[in-house]
Each structure stands twice: as structure tokens, then as C-alpha cells.
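Bumping my old thread because nobody answered last time. Still need a sequence for this structure:
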């Protein structure tokens, strides 16, 4: 089966820093994949370039079998690719419900010109129910806890009915109960057919949830495989030990 996401030779430099160095990997449809690597190995940059938030210097990207020449966040979202951010991005002054509804309107200011459809509103309410946030629907998103904002961002990206979700450090800074909740929702969505690529530092989370695990070091993959394989890979151990 052809890849859902394929990156080939992605390169991104910031001044003298090579954040992505001829980086290539593929994500098969139905994957629950992890992208791991030491700090500064290029994980967030890979997400930014794949989702069109930063232009690559070189490389090719294809999604859903089509080559994406100039990745653009709005267009990719329409094609079924969604992402969350290492620091959850919500509109703090808007209500929780408005945040979810808005996620479906890219560019979001389009919303200012038309009314929210009943269907969108219902879907947003359903999502908030599924994520246990219904009681907070009319509260400004800025009042939510850090973990709840991560959940809200996750719920919001589902408005677009994505086929692939890229999560950047979904458990960072959230309490253990919320980690379990996030894991539950990832498994649930994966069971409903959504594919995932997850950047995550918490190794026990990655090891119990993800397969394959792709390991980046200095901007390029050094290993890709089942969690146990990757865990015992010499080059991976060296990368983490700062070889
Ligand atoms: N906007 C930027 N400007 C300059 N350097 C950057 C920028 N974004 C990332 N970098 C550098 O690129 C490298 C990879 O960073 P990043 O992708 O954030 O790594 P990771 O997410 O794996 O920790 C690091 O050396 C980082 O300092
Ligand atoms: Mg990062």
C-alpha cells in the first residue's frame, strides 16, 4: 500500500544550523507512529515543514498519494492533515466551544463573515462531550488548565475530520491522569481510522503506544522500527548518550 505521508530529502537550515538534513521517511495509512530524538534533533522543525508552517530549503512531500509542492497549513488541513503544537495554541479570549468551531474555518476570519452552521455547532458540542469538556463549553479557553488546553486543541483538530494528526509532545507538562486521558483519545481515534505521527519525550508513553518509532538525530532518521528494536539499537543509544 502506498504511504499516507512520504517525505524525501527534507532539508531546513537556520543560519548555520542544519535542523533537517536530507530527512526521508514514510508513514503508512493506519499508523500510530512516533518521531523521537534528542533535544534539538529537528522533530518540531520536521512538523513545521511538513505542515507548511515553515518552508523547506529542499525536499519533497507527498500526502495521500499526491505530491504537495508548496505545503500550506490551510490546504493541508482540507486534504486531511492536522497538527497540534508543543505549546497548545488556543484562542484564550474565545469560549471553548468557539475554539472548536473556529478550527473548522480556515482561514478563521472567514467565520466573521458568516454564521456558524447548525451542523458545525452540533459536531463541536459532540466533540466537547467526547473529550469531557462539555461543562466548560462557554468558559473562555484561557481559563482551562494546561492539560485541558491540550485536550481542547486535540478536540479542535478533529473538526476537520483529518486522516493524519501530528501531535507535538501531547503529554509534556500535563499530569498523569491527563496523560491517560490523552492516550485514551489517541487510541480511540486510531481505532476509528485516524493515523498519527507523535513527537514525544516520554519514552514509556511511546513504547506502549507507538509502532513504528522513527528516531531522528541531527536532522535525519537513524532508526525506524518496532519500539523494542529501536530501544536496543546501538546508534539510538549513542545518539541519546550524546555520542
Ligand atoms: N526558528 C528557528 N531559528 C533558529 N534556529 C532554530 C529555529 N527552530 C529550530 N531551530 C534550531 O534547529 C534545531 C532543531 O530544533 P527543533 O526542530 O526545535 O528540535 P526538537 O523539536 O527535536 O527539539 C535546533 O538546533 C534549534 O535550535
Ligand atoms: Mg520540539
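Sorry it took so long. Here it is:
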Amino acid at each position: 500500500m502506498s504511504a499516507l505521508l512520504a517525505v524525501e530529502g527534507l532539508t531546513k537550515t537556520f543560519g548555520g544550523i542544519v535542523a533537517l538534513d536530507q530527512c526521508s521517511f514514510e508513514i503508512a495509512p493506519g499508523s500510530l507512529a512516533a518521531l523521537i530524538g534528542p533535544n534539538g534533533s529537528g522533530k518540531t522543525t520536521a512538523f513545521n515543514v511538513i505542515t507548511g508552517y515553515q518552508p523547506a530549503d529542499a525536499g519533497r512531500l507527498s500526502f495521500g498519494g499526491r505530491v504537495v509542492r508548496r505545503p500550506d497549513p490551510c490546504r493541508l488541513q482540507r486534504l486531511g492533515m492536522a497538527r497540534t503544537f508543543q505549546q497548545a495554541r488556543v484562542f484564550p479570549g474565545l469560549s471553548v466551544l468557539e475554539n472548536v468551531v473556529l478550527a473548522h474555518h480556515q482561514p478563521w476570519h472567514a467565520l466573521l463573515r458568516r454564521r456558524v452552521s447548525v451542523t458545525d455547532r452540533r459536531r463541536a458540542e459532540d466533540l466537547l462531550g467526547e473529550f469531557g469538556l462539555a461543562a466548560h463549553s462557554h468558559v473562555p479557553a484561557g481559563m482551562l488548565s494546561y492539560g485541558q488546553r491540550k485536550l481542547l486543541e486535540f478536540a479542535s483538530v478533529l473538526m476537520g475530520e483529518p486522516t493524519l494528526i501530528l501531535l507535538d509532545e501531547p503529554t509534556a507538562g500535563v499530569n498523569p491522569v491527563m496523560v491517560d486521558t490523552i492516550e485514551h483519545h489517541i487510541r480511540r481515534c486510531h481505532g476509528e481510522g485516524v493515523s498519527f505521527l507523535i513527537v514525544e519525550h516520554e519514552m514509556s508513553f511511546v513504547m506502549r503506544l507507538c509502532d513504528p518509532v522513527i528516531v531522528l538525530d541531527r536532522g535525519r532518521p537513524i532508526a525506524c522500527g518496532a519500539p523494542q528494536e529501536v530501544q536496543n539499537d546501538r546508534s539510538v543509544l549513542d545518539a541519546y548518550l550524546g555520542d
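The pocket of magnesium ion (ligand 2) is lined by residues 43-44, 86 (CB under 6 Å). Let me know if any region looks off to you.
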